[in-house]
Design a protein that fits this description.
The chain folds into two domains: about 30 residues, no CATH class; about 50 residues, no CATH class. Helix content is about 50%, strand content about 0%. It has about 80 residues and is mainly alpha-helical.
């Protein structure tokens, strides 16, 4: 949602709103490192043990991921 201190969105509507807002604000440029973001979302998700929340990580890229091997490893590890 653009707020690093409180990154939660409320429902699918909140996810879509955050996505549309990001399209207007985000400028894509490199280097693009996704592994730290994947790992941060995974840590947040791991804190919810009762299944009361779900987590969606939407990755928008210009096509060039600088840490592809680490990103793949992070996705495999958190899945």
């Amino acid at each position: 949602n653009g707020d690093a201190a409180n990154p939660a969105c409320d429902g699918i509507e909140g996810v879509l709103e955050a996505y549309h807002r990001s399209l207007r604000r985000v400028q894509l440029y490199g280097p693009t490192n996704f592994a730290p973001v994947v790992n941060r979302v995974a840590r947040s998700a791991a804190e919810v043990l009762d299944g009361s929340q779900y987590f969606v990580l939407l990755i928008i890229t210009d096509g060039v991921i600088s840490d592809m091997a680490q990103t793949k490893e992070a996705i495999v590890n958190v899945s």
